[in-house]
Design brief:
The chain has 330 residues and is an alpha/beta fold. The chain folds into two domains: 160 residues, Rossmann fold (3-Layer(aba) Sandwich); 126 residues, Riboflavin kinase-like (Elongation Factor Tu (Ef-tu), domain 3, Beta Barrel), CATH 2.40.30. 35% of the residues lie in helices and 25% in strands.
Length: 330
């Protein structure tokens, strides 16, 4: 998959089939849309192109009421790549872009910018200044500029429309089973391990630290997780995602992960943290002693979670865990 920050340059311009949207989470509704785009691309012998936006348009217009982010950019890009996208255009959403009339959007982006031959949009797609453009405008433009326009119907799960909003609600509630059903995969966050304050190590609970670039993740609190990318099997762990109010007033969001029974140099490694169960909300404590006691309790609860899961899955799972828990990476 080729990624373009803004419209492709002249050498990269070639006809394509296109879909446009934010694709936060790349949930089952997005996946159905991408499958339709892939089929249209295959029938025409053209590449699949997705245009998305950074920041989210609602972050630009109403930053205080912007939706929480389900995916970081790395995870969104990887999900789009895995669903057959050949070209990803990440358009910077700013005053100039937002101020384009529907006609300018069609000419500058769809026709001259991406040379679109076939376009698929969702059932709620609007575009141009003040969201003045709609599906009928697009269909008329397609007739004038010779590109086909299709609209994707609503995709539902258990009678409820699959949407990024539904995924955010599930994650905010700590309902990872529901999030899995909507996403078609377990919810996880991927990132490189970075150096932190080393406070966890001083308290006896060393952590892997992953930066969260956006300020409003779709979930926060203390969680049972498992970590992929450090061993042959996922490693059991407990994690904190949030602002760390007891020790940090910077407003920076951080994902901190304490691996159970694992020692190793993980700095710089790319890991995927899969969320399994929420233990509690984030709390501001009066001092480090209270914080240390809370972390100890969280760790005990995480161990109990994995012990219960192992008992439920039988002796073979317990043997696998015993091997994983004693692995070491130098």
């Amino acid at each position: 998959m080729r990624v373009f920050r803004g419209l492709p340059n002249a050498q990269s311009k070639a006809p394509c089939v296109l879909t446009i949207g934010n694709f936060d989470g790349v949930h089952l509704g997005h996946q159905a849309l991408l499958a339709r785009v892939r089929a249209a691309a295959a029938a025409r012998g053209l590449p699949v192109c997705v245009m998305t936006f950074e920041p989210h348009p609602r972050e630009y217009f109403t930053p205080d009421r912007a939706p929480a982010r389900i995916s970081n950019l790395r995870d969104k890009f990887e999900a789009l790549r895995s669903h057959g996208v050949d070209r990803l255009v990440v358009e910077h959403f700013n005053a100039h872009f937002a101020g384009q009339s529907p006609e300018d959007f069609v000419r500058n982006i769809i026709v001259d910018g991406l040379h679109t031959r076939w376009l698929l949009v969702g059932d709620d797609f609007r575009f141009g200044a003040k969201r003045a453009g709609d599906i009928e405008y697009l269909r008329d433009a397609g007739r004038r500029f010779d590109f086909v326009v299709e609209q994707m119907p609503t995709i539902a799960h258990d009678g409820v429309r699959i949407s990024s909003s539904e995924v955010r609600t599930a994650l905010a509630d700590g309902n990872f089973e529901r999030a899995h059903a909507l996403l078609g995969r377990p919810y996880a966050i991927t990132g490189h391990v970075v150096h932190g304050m080393k406070l966890g190590r001083k308290l006896g609970f060393p952590t892997l630290n992953l930066r969260i670039a956006h300020k409003h993740p779709a979930l926060s609190g203390i969680f049972v997780v498992q970590v992929h990318g450090l061993a042959d099997k996922p490693l059991p762990a407990v994690a904190s995602l949030g602002l760390r109010p007891t020790v940090d007033d910077s407003g920076r969001v951080l994902l901190e992960v304490h691996l159970l029974d694992f020692v190793g140099d993980c700095y710089g490694k790319l890991v995927r943290v899969e969320f399994l169960q929420k233990l509690r909300d984030e709390v501001k404590y009066d001092g480090l002693a209270e914080l240390e006691a809370a972390i100890a309790q969280d760790t005990r609860e995480a161990r109990a979670y994995f012990a219960h899961a192992l008992d439920a899955n039988g002796p073979s799972a317990r043997r696998d865990f015993a091997t994983t828990a004693t692995d070491r990476i130098s």
